[in-house]
Specification:
six-stranded antiparallel sheet, 18 strands, single chain
Amino acid sequence: MPTTPDWVKNAVFYQIFPDRFARSGQVDAHDTVTLKPWGHPPEAQGFQGGDLYGIVQHLDYLQELGVTALYLNPIFASAANHRYHTYDYYTVDPLLGGNEALHTLLDAAHQRDIRVVLDGVFNHASRGFWPFHHVLENGADSPYTDWFHLHDTPLRPYNDSAPANYDAWAGLRALPKLNTDHPPVRAFILDVATHWIEQGVDGWRLDVPNEIDDDDFWRTFRDRVKSTDPDAYICGEIWTPADRWLQGDQFDGVMNYPLTDSLFGFVAPNTLRGFDHEHFDFAPRTGTEFTREVMSVFTRYPESIQQAQLNVLDSHDTPRILHTLGNNVAAMKLAVLFQMTMPGAPCIYYGDEIGMSSAGDPYCREAFPWSDEARWNDSLLSFYQQATALRNNHPVLRTGSVSAIQATDRQAVFRRSTDSNEAIIAFNTAGTLSTVTIPALDLSASTYTPVWPADRSAPLRSSDPTVQLPEHSAAVWIGPRSSA
């Protein structure tokens, strides 16, 4: 059985796009530069000045939300506000507060038992990365030509009138692809990876790791990271089934996008807006289709891997969930509750919990409206707090095995089981009150206590396993598992 970090299986993640989460007023570098106003339209270029001290200032908010782990988009020195254009892998961007700010965040987060995972961009660097700049200045005479996939020199990094004469991510000349077959490049990346783990970082989310098409590289990466901290989390950005990388010798988990597509089609068949993406079809799903698809996802990998998946509903690369679901808050709540009651670590994209809704990149990267609470959906925030508490308070919802035990056109019922407890989770995505009869043979306990929603008081009994679910609602019961 592959070994994955136990803390991940029990975590609730919160993804932060650092430039847009919170500006602290504590970064000296901000005093000497011109920043865009906070809340400036996200489609505009420029920096709005979110920083790592700003995250520290809001750790109490995140803790009240039920968050136990942070995933930060890139934080290293870069000339892009998203910082996927890295030019110094050993320096936290001065606009984010520099290395000192990261250490302050790590100390403050760890004091609250909150882990911090960084975004690792190792497939490509930027035009400002010093070896690339060395080649730019020296051409074929540079000793760093083998660090990249060059076709000829001199380089054409800015001349859009002719194709780039080097390999770049997605053909973007601003992102020269690193030559990871070159031993010094491999050594450099591995040193960066272990350096920040030694500094106290709790793991890596790897950007487009499939584009470093080299299993031996990722096995070595895992060995080096895990030898530095066996509990470090390694999560790959893989949008498709990821068997190749989830054999226990490369990644602990991946961003579980296949689960997301099926979920959206089930909870919002009539309002689903969707977006143009090759890995999503956004087709409506019946309960039967939904359970078949998600159980295929849940049973694809060993249980230890499945429990370490990063279950996302949206991210910096997609429209926000509320936008995708057609601003259907009821459907969004069902999706979140599914996320919080199923295997894998749920990840909240910053601002979703207060009802931020927008199309994809760059619109989904807007500033968090801390000073404009009139924009907050307080009811939705309260729901998120209750949903994370449900997961955090019941181990069976974090590490129990999963099975689907009932499905109809607009309903689905799942079971989570540990050696000692069993949870029954029922969803009704119909716009009407529905009656669901759960097969008695699938109920191990004679009586299950309701734990969701707060106003549900009727227990679930194996002697009469018929329940009523209001429109667009879900219910959760927990009981002891029979040893028979």
